Amino acid sequence: MSGPAGRGPAVGAGAVPPSGPQLGTAAAAGVRAVSPGSPDAPGLGSLSERVAGALLAHPDVVRLSGGTFGSVATYLPGRRLVGVALGDADEPTRISVVLRLGARVRPTVEALRALVAAETGARRVDVVVTDLADPTDPAEAAAATGRARS
Questions:
Q1: What string of DSSP letters covers 44-72?
Q2: Nearest to 63 by CA among 147, 5, 123
Q3: Environment class of residue 112 by beta-carbon count within 10 Å: exposed (0-12), middle (13-18) or buried (19+)?
Q4: Tell me: the pLDDT tens digits for 126-141?
Q5: Could you tell me which residues come within 8 angstroms of residue 1 by beta carbon, excluding any fewer than 6 positions away?
Q6: Listed residue (143, 144, 111, 145) closest to 127, CA to CA
Q7: Helix count (H) and strand count (E) of the chain?
Q8: DSSP of 102-143, one letter per residue?
Q9: What pLDDT digit, counting tens, does each position of 64-107 carry?
Q10: In the 8-state DSSP scheme, what is residue 88?
């Protein structure tokens, strides 16, 4: 049965008239609008920075690493964020870290994988541990803050 002038289904007993937000819209999904410059805005830049911050907050992570060839990175306007590469579609999210000397590698990797998956919603997170370092070493402290080693 169709409605007036053949414009789709008629609204009758048991039918729900289309009103309010439709499925697939931001309002229907419970998403609120934010300005593009907001830290809550979606996008690769802000999400990559949030992931990096969460990784660096873990007590066993000394610093982020670019990986063997420096390929684990996100390119942001005017800079490169090493250690985090968000995957597109079916690609895995990749992170590369230097862990604290004495850290239990397997449990730490599992914790980091869960942390990144929770932050990004990624189904697959590849974690690479490139090195173990003593955070009390002055040379390592300089590397962690971005200064060049001497």
A1: HHHHHHHHHHHHHHSTTEEEE---TTS--
A2: 147
A3: buried
A4: 999 999 999 888 877 6
A5: 9, 10, 12
A6: 111
A7: 3, 6
A8: T--HHHHHHHHHHHHHHHH--S-EEEEEEEEE-TTSHHHHHH
A9: 999 989 999 998 888 999 999 998 878 999 999 999 999 999 99
A10: P
Report the length, in residues, of the chain. Answer: 150
Which residue is listed with tokens 């809550």? 40
Output the CA–CA distances (angstroms, integers) from residue 49 to 19, 46, 54, 103, in the order listed. Answer: 39, 5, 9, 24
Model confidence pTM above 0.90 = no
Q: What are the tokens at 37?
A: 């410059």
Radius of gyration for the alpha carbons in the chain, expressed in angstroms and rounded: 23
